[in-house]
Design goal:
Helix content is about 65%, strand content about 0%. The chain has one domain (about 10-239): Ferritin (Up-down Bundle). Helix 2 runs antiparallel to helix 3 (about 55-80), helix 3 (about 55-80) packs antiparallel against helix 5 (about 135-165) and helix 4 packs across helix 6. The chain is mainly alpha-helical. Bound molecules: fe (ii) ion (2 copies). One fe (ii) ion binds near residues 37, 68, 71, 123 and 149.
């Protein structure tokens, strides 16, 4: 641990007095969360309401969509407070590419269930890594969104358990897992990432991208195993 990682920045006002590298690093994380939460809500959660097979599933999917839009709004508002321009936090207005996972062309309910099971688990890992962030407004947002991300991953498990009750449902969900999982590995960023090194030096994040990816693969395997599913071979290759 360096001295930098013992820093505690309690407010946005205090952030403005920190070295530029720290301010830029915090802004990068806020922007990336704001963009990706909005992109995800639009690409997956809102369209999934129409795919949900019965009223109970639609109700809970609406709740998930509401919460994902809510995550965007919270990160967006923090970004504004930090002086980040609105356009940088809206996917169609920024040149920053959203994560590759969002290129997945969602067509079925089973695919959505696989996305909640796997992608929201990945989000839980990302949010966990911010729980002790030296920039407290970001830490507080992570603590606020965490129970909701847990609910989303549990949603994937619960509706997954419903689907695997029939051989056809299990087969279709396994196929969806096989398609979604490989897109998740890039979610954790490159190995030896410069950004990640800066985040860790300043105590903004705790773990390396490689550590997070390896932990994710184990936890994703465990989650899939709970409902009798497996991960495709790419998981073994990447571990
Ligand atoms: Fe979210
Ligand atoms: Fe989520």
């Amino acid at each position: 641990m360096t001295d930098k990682s013992k820093l505690q920045v309690k407010t946005v006002e205090e952030l403005k007095k920190q070295p530029e590298e720290y301010q830029v690093a915090c802004a990068k994380l806020v922007v990336s969360h704001a963009i990706n939460e909005l992109y995800g809500a639009r690409a997956f959660d809102e369209p999934a309401v129409a795919l949900a097979p019965h009223p109970y599933a639609k109700w809970l999917t609406c709740r998930v969509a509401m919460e994902e839009y809510g995550h965007h709004v919270r990160f967006f508002e923090l970004g504004r407070e930090m002086g980040i321009a609105d356009d940088k936090m809206i996917p169609e207005k920024t040149s920053k590419r959203p994560l590759s996972i969002f290129d997945f062309p969602l067509k079925t309910w089973e695919e959505f269930v696989a996305i909640k099971l796997l992608a929201d688990l990945a989000e839980i890992l990302q949010v966990e890594d911010l729980l002790h962030c030296t920039f407290h407004p970001l830490r507080n947002l992570a603590r606020m969104t965490m129970p909701e991300e847990r609910f989303h991953a549990q949603f994937g498990l619960d509706f997954g358990a419903e689907l695997v009750k029939t051989p056809e449902g299990k087969k279709t969900l396994q196929q969806a897992v096989n398609k979604v999982f490989p897109t998740m590995l890039a979610f954790f960023g490159g190995a030896k990432s410069k950004n990640n090194e800066i985040f860790r030096n300043w105590g903004i994040k705790l773990r390396t991208n490689e550590e997070m990816r390896a932990d994710y693969i184990n936890r994703a395997r465990e989650a899939a195993g709970k409902i009798g599913l497996t991960l495709p071979d790419v998981a073994t290759a990447a571990a």
